[in-house]
Design brief:
Helices cover about 45% and strands about 20% of the residues. With about 350 residues, it is of the alpha/beta class. The chain has 2 domains: about 150 residues, ATPase, nucleotide binding domain (Nucleotidyltransferase, domain 5), CATH 3.30.420.40; about 160 residues, Nucleotidyltransferase, domain 5 (2-Layer Sandwich), CATH 3.30.420.40. The strands form 2 sheets. Strands 3-2-1-4-5 form a 5-stranded mixed sheet, with helices on both faces. The longest helix is centred in the last third of the chain and has 26 residues. It starts with a helix and ends in a 16-residue tail after the last helix. It binds 5'-O-[(R)-(carboxyoxy)(hydroxy)phosphoryl]adenosine (KG4) and zinc ion (ZN). The site of zinc ion (ZN) has 5 residues, from helix 5.
């Protein structure tokens, strides 16, 4: 029996079980992360962040990210196994993020996972990073079952998703230009804040009031988003003020921007929950770590009688535990293993 046939057999045998163990690898951007999971439980999760390395460049430099993934990945795998008190023999399945993300960065994780899976004869499950973000909710709320609505807001994506099952996800709306996180990062840069901009804007906004009237980042009568107009309005505002020698009230501007983004995301999400008659709303993605967004969603969701799921902040930003649990959900839905020809797909 060749590797692929053997992998298929293994998955068929464990599909309906909850007690097998997954080693998951995530390297799509600037975090090298490895986790060991079992069902919806995290046995260990290690994240090696490159934020400090990229900060001096004001953003992620893809080539530098790839090189640092190569340097880190072997040790992080060892650390995750040790944290779970396991060796590779105790692992049943290998999972890896294969897209979307930075090509070179993804390739490090995919190549490493393929080698590990093939050498040890274990099935390999390729995971879409976005589905990984969604799976963070299964870790925080292990009893969660579809159908539910998911507001996904990350550095690369913003979408309202109707989850019928983990294998059947309908996009009700998505961003037509910048993602919410991208808008946070760009506005932060204009305000002279370091990378990554989201947490910096949140910090600064705490000292401000929403005194700036900004254009609505609105797309009427749909669940789609557009953030580029809002971003451009802020860039123009800052540049015009500078040209006139006027002081910008940076904290107020950060607060006004954050309020506008949170208002838009929450407004559309709750409207979708009402239209599709869904009583549970889950938050996912790096922007989901934003306190103002979490508060607004919790408050307005409760008012609308909805159950709002907010995974802990550390599960909103990139990690490998969410990739492991996504693989578990995929296997339960009958996913096939990857062939060894699996390639990274930056545009997935
Ligand atoms: O999900 P994520 O870790 O990576 C992607 O898959 O893109 O999201 C990263 C994005 C960045 O744009 C970052 O600025 C934003 O999430 N972010 C935040 C916060 N923490 C991270 N945005 C707003 N407030 C935060 N506290
Ligand atoms: Zn992410």
């Amino acid at each position: 029996m060749n590797y692929y046939e053997k992998s298929k057999k293994t998955l068929e045998a464990i599909k309906d079980r909850r007690d097998y163990t997954i080693l998951a690898i995530e390297s799509s951007c600037d975090e090298t992360a490895v986790a060991v999971t079992r069902g919806r439980t995290v046995l260990s999760s290690v994240i090696s962040s490159q934020i400090e390395i990229h900060r001096r460049f004001g953003g992620v430099v893809p080539e530098i990210a790839s090189r640092n993934h190569v340097l880190a990945i072997g040790n992080i795998v060892e650390e995750a196994l040790a944290g779970a008190k396991l060796t590779l023999e105790g692992i049943d399945v290998v999972a890896v993020t294969y897209g979307p993300g930075l090509l070179g960065a993804l390739l490090v994780g995919v190549s490493y996972a393929k080698a590990l899976a093939f050498a040890s004869g274990k099935p390999l499950i390729p995971i879409d990073h976005i589905k990984g973000h969604m799976a963070a909710n299964y870790i925080a709320s292990p009893e969660l079952q579809p159908p539910y609505l998911c507001l996904l807001a990350s550095g690369g994506h913003t979408a309202i998703l109707k989850v019928n099952s983990f294998a059947d996800i309908v996009t009700l709306g998505s961003t037509q230009d910048d993602a919410a996180g991208e808008a946070f990062d760009k506005v932060a840069r204009v305000l002279g804040l370091p990378y990554p901009g989201g947490p910096e804007i949140e910090k600064l906004a705490k000292e401000g009031l929403p005194t700036y009237a900004l254009p609505r980042a609105f797309k009427e009568k749909s669940y789609d988003f557009s953030f580029s107009g809002l971003k451009t309005a802020i860039i123009n505002l800052v540049e015009n003020s500078r040209a006139r020698g006027e002081e910008i009230r940076r904290a107020d501007l950060a607060r006004s921007f954050q309020d506008e983004v949170a208002d838009l995301l929450v407004g559309k999400t709750l409207a979708a929950a009402a239209e599709y008659n869904l009583s549970t709303v889950a938050l996912a993605g790096g922007v989901g770590a934003n306190g103002a967004l979490r508060e607004r969603l919790a408050l307005q969701g409760a008012k609308a009688g909805l159950r709002i799921l907010l995974p802990p902040r550390a599960l909103c930003t990139d990690n490998a535990a969410m990739i492991g649990v996504a693989a578990y959900e995929e296997i339960a839905c009958g996913a096939l293993p990857a062939e060894l020809t699996l390639d990274a797909d930056p545009e997935l």
